[in-house]
Amino acid sequence: MEPHSLSQPTDARIACGAKTMRLCTRESLHQLVVEHMNGARFIAVSNREPCIHQYNGGQIECMTPASGLVTALNPIMRASGGVWVAHGSGTADRASADDHGRVGIPAEAPAYTLRRVWLPADIERGYYYGLANEGLWPLCHLAFRRPRFSRDDWESYRRANELFAEAVLEEANGGPAFVFIQDYHFALLPEMLRRANPRLAIAQFWHIPWPPPDTFRIFPWGRELLEGLLGNDLLGFQLSSDCANFLGAVEQPSLALTDDVCRQVHRCGHSTNVRPFPISIDFEEY
After folding, report:
1. Cβ distance 6 to 199 under 8 Å?
2. Which residues span the domain enclosing 143?
């Protein structure tokens, strides 16, 4: 695979891929991954892990968390046989993983690898419960609760993104890979990865709304957040209105050249495609 063969998807390729994903079965999804990955490794990134190991009466139990993200992403991971990088939060997660935080999923017949990232308690508090949940979540949802912005939380958020970047880069091992990042916990991660390994193709799905530009403007570290997201080759939202709001946010500080018609952002010789992808699940399983 050539270094950038995955990193600059055309409009036709994106549209075709979205249509194929809506129509695919589990078997055709596996074939799609085999045909289009060209041997590159598939790496998914999320805060929530697909399997949590907990101690229960001296025994270790594996629990699947109640999560729409896990439900939607699991079929892709099983089809790709790739690596899922996530925060190890279970009481028995360390005991269930190897020295590198890796464990096969599912245990009885591993189809892919879970790579756990260990976050110090203070970093987890500031990154997840602080900046992500008390700052970004209410800001993006236009909640009636005032967002809380803390410099310490922002630094924890940055550090958590750095720790995840280290894990992803280790799993990619310097080679080409397709990295699929999930949600608002990792806005800084795409640019970190692109600087460290230009051979990566990077996509991110932002699961929550994106606020109007005038609302986003109150976020104290807005420019840094946008610069991080523009490290993506493809940035997905649920709705077209979210795409428009994001493009408007980029235009306000004159951060980059935007093309509202093609939904593209051009910055420093790199293009980010911004697209709506209403998420779905493997309905046959249910």
Report:
1. no
2. 11-45+65-82+119-285
